[in-house]
Design goal:
Helix content: 25-40%
Number of helices: 17
Radius of gyration: 30 Å
Strand order of the largest sheet: 3-4-5-7-6
Number of domains: 5
Length: about 750
């Protein structure tokens, strides 16, 4: 609608109906100022308008505040909304201010988020978020188009109750991004030291927070994952309807006459020792021509979870399972995820079978997909499989897998996918749920064997669907953007290394660059920079290839128990290759293929599951950080070897080598001189000494603070009085420069002394 003409409304004090007409037709928030301007009001007429609007509000004709009004029972064209639910990946919102006199429920608006390049690939909208949105009626409902997210609008805040010297309550947030404690006006029976959920006690910031739920001891076992679940809005309780439907689905017969019987094959599942479910299993045997016939058997989740059902709706909402050290929040109810769908040893299971023909060069020359019955010969831990191979005790079927993998590895090396060393932290808990060990997960050939078989099956699934011109949910990893490549080029120039932007950028280019670097410290720096230059992978129906794996077509097919994307690929294969099974019971949806809704708009569901994946990654990372901080809280004062992972004006971020956990080194602790921030080179440089701190550099640092509630760490130089003790430094030695201890406290008067300011991460 074009902007409203000045003379569209009669000039002078409007009637009640004229005010309502203006509000209904306005494209902008309709406040007192906008109404006065539209009707040409001046002086005393503006005072009369204020009285009129107050009367209309008291009469129930309008609702709003000083800045905007809307007609009772309606929704303004532009207004503030609050997200109250995520329904099948789509946010649902209600007006943030809704107090009708007739107690009618607020209208629910489906939030339409931007897609593709127009969308900022940041965190997805979560329950409690507030947005300024443009609204429109659509049929019998309403749509909302977000204009911007209103920061700090979360309705609920999780934190720990603390009392100051006067007995006043303060909420110390568990989110490290929230810098300050918040006053509590209503403790709701909560005691000091308890983990609670609180919400604003009133509309004014001065109203403080009121406690609405007491969650218990914040340092108790399982508390860290609970914090992440609440913070990121992860659904973790299944509706009764979904549980009942899953129980019914678990009773479905396997229809042996309609499935390929593969129970005679010694198929094995190789998984982590603590795996909660088993999606995949593999088998291979020589084909007599220098190659192998291989099988990748994947749990046939699409047979049990039908599109449109209650279980399916909940799975779409979750998008994926979320794995914490102490628990898993599954995508599917336990009767399916941990029992009927899980490929357990010695049990008959429904599977989607990917048959592969591998030639002597490791290329996949043929594939076919069937629905099958399998009986897994053994579930083996990675470490045990590797031990058998290394010791020569491996059975023939296990040895065949390694031989087939060596061919796949040959083809992988020819592709030369991006090879970055990315260590994975592993948190081991004891029987009481306390931390027994935190270590870097060892990377074995057994991991590579399974990984390369899964990649082969994923490629086959994508190409099989393309051959039928069927819908595909691709796993997409786009090449680095030009903006990031320019930043990388500028950074490499500080090492006297060149990156020509005129050439085709491939993973091989980065691999060769890293391989040619002999100095390990410099290699670590450049590897960090290459990693930062990469884009984030996502799901979508339009193929853009997988840059990191050097693959033209790639889809996720191998983990339908824990990823909704894989379930969609299975359904597409069912449709494309006529793999539908006999109609199930009447009380379950009949088809196991794609729904008409998904077939017509895969972009929408792809966007939703990409958002859910980012949410899960953030929650898992936050939880690991809290466990690491808890582990380190008893080691404050000890000295660690660390690597710089971030450089900002206010200081450095460093990670403990071999353990992980990012911590801040405030610039004030580095010395009396001024340090300048070279953003392009990612360095802090001392004005007087010329001393530099750069990405990837290794330092000895003392742990000054470890906060298990936020996962935040703080480091300081080993000898604050004399300076930073350096393990490694690129470019030779530096003359010693005396340092003084920096003052880094942020407790405010009247607040608990252990509440500290935490610097924001990059």
């Amino acid at each position: 609608m074009p902007p409203m003409a000045k003379n569209k409304f009669p000039q002078g004090l409007p009637t009640r109906q004229q005010v309502l007409d203006f509000i209904a037709q306005s494209d902008e928030p309709a406040g007192k100022r906008e109404i006065a301007k539209a009707f040409g009001l001046k002086g005393t007429e503006k005072i009369a308008l204020k009285t009129l609007l107050k009367d209309m509000a008291e009469e129930g004709l309008i609702d709003g505040n000083r800045s905007a009004f809307h007609a009772m029972g309606g929704v303004p064209r532009v207004t503030v909304l609050r997200i109250v639910e995520i329904d099948e990946g789509e946010p649902v919102a209600i007006p943030d201010s809704w107090q009708p006199e007739d107690a009618s429920p607020p209208p629910r608006l489906r939030v339409v988020e931007p897609r593709g390049k127009a969308r900022d690939r940041g965190p997805a909208l979560r329950v409690g978020d507030r947005i300024l949105a443009r609204t429109e009626e659509a049929g019998k409902g309403w749509l909302a188009h977000p204009m911007k997210k209103i920061q700090g609008g979360e309705e609920q805040l999780m934190g720990v109750v603390e009392l100051d010297g006067t007995g006043k309550g303060w909420l110390a947030p568990v989110d490290k991004r929230v810098r300050n404690a918040v006053p509590i006006s209503d403790l709701g029976g909560a005691e000091a030291g308890q983990l609670v959920l609180a919400e604003p006690a009133g509309r004014s910031p001065r109203s403080g927070m009121k406690v609405v739920a007491v969650l218990g001891d914040p340092l108790a076992p399982r508390a860290f994952s609970l914090i992440a679940i609440h913070k990121h809005g992860i659904p973790f309780v299944f509706p009764e309807a979904a549980l009942r439907e899953a129980e019914e689905a678990a009773k479905l017969p396997l229809s042996e006459d309609k499935r390929e019987d593969l129970r005679h094959l010694p198929i094995v599942a190789i998984d982590p020792a603590d795996a909660r479910d088993h999606d995949d299993a593999i088998w291979a045997e020589p084909d007599g021509q220098g190659g192998f016939n291989a099988l990748v058997a994947i749990a046939d989740v699409s047979f049990y979870v039908r599109p449109g059902g209650q279980t399916d709706r909940e799975a779409r909402k979750r998008g994926n399972s979320v794995y914490f050290p102490d628990r898993v929040v599954p995508m599917l109810p336990e009767v399916l995820s941990a029992d009927v769908c899980s490929l357990k040893s010695g049990a008959d299971r429904a599977a989607m079978a990917c048959h592969l023909s591998i030639d002597s060069a490791g290329r996949i020359k043929d594939w076919r997909f069937t629905r099958a019955i399998v009986r897994i010969a053994e579930v083996i831990a990675y470490e045990e499989a590797q031990r058998r191979i290394d010791s020569g005790e491996a059975e023939a079927h296990l040895a065949n897998l390694w031989d087939a993998w060596r061919l796949l590895e040959k083809a992988r090396n020819e592709r030369d996918p991006l090879n970055l060393e990315l260590p994975e932290r592993r948190v081991v808990l004891d029987e009481q749920g306390k931390i027994a060990e935190i270590a870097i997960r060892e990377r074995l050939d057994a991991h590579r064997v399974v990984e390369d078989f899964m990649i082969a099956a994923n490629v086959a699934a994508a190409k099989a669907l393309e051959a039928k011109v069927a819908p595909v949910v691709y796993r997409i990893h786009e090449p680095p953007s030009r903006e990031k490549l320019v930043a990388l080029k500028d950074y490499l120039a500080t090492f006297d290394r060149k990156l020509s932007l005129g050439q085709v950028i491939t993973p091989s280019l980065f691999n060769r660059m890293l391989k040619d670097i002999a100095d390990e410290a410099e290699k670590a720096l450049i590897m960090e920079a290459v990693l930062r230059s990469q884009t984030q992978a996502y799901y979508g129906p339009r193929n853009a290839g997988h840059f990191g794996l050097s693959l033209g077509s790639y889809a996720h097919f191998t983990s339908p128990i824990r990823r909704y994307s894989d379930l969609l690929v299975h359904r597409a294969l069912v449709d494309a290759y006529g793999l539908e099974q006999p109609r199930p019971k009447a009380d379950l949806p009949p088809t196991s293929g794609l729904s008409d809704r998904d077939r017509g708009d895969l972009a929408r569901v792809s966007e939703a599951i990409s958002n859910a994946e980012r949410r899960a990654m953030e929650a898992e990372r936050d939880t690991i950080d809290r466990y690491v901080a808890a582990w380190l809280s008893g080691k404050v004062g000890e000295v660690f070897d660390t690597r710089i992972t971030g450089v900002q004006k206010f200081g450095l971020f460093a990670t403990i080598i071999g353990l992980g956990g990012d911590g801040l080194v405030p610039v004030s602790t580095l010395g009396a001189e001024r340090f300048n921030h070279d953003e392009k080179a990612q360095r802090l440089i001392g004005e007087l000494s010329g001393e530099e701190f750069a990405m990837g550099q290794i330092l000895k640092l003392r742990l000054a603070e470890a906060n298990p509630l936020t996962g935040a760490l703080k480091f300081e130089p080993v000898d604050v009085a004399e300076g930073v003790q350096r393990i490694e430094r690129r470019g030779g030695k530096m003359e010693h420069t005396p340092r003084r201890q920096g003052n880094y406290t942020a407790g405010k008067r009247g607040r608990p002394s252990n509440i500290r300011h935490q610097g924001k991460r990059k």
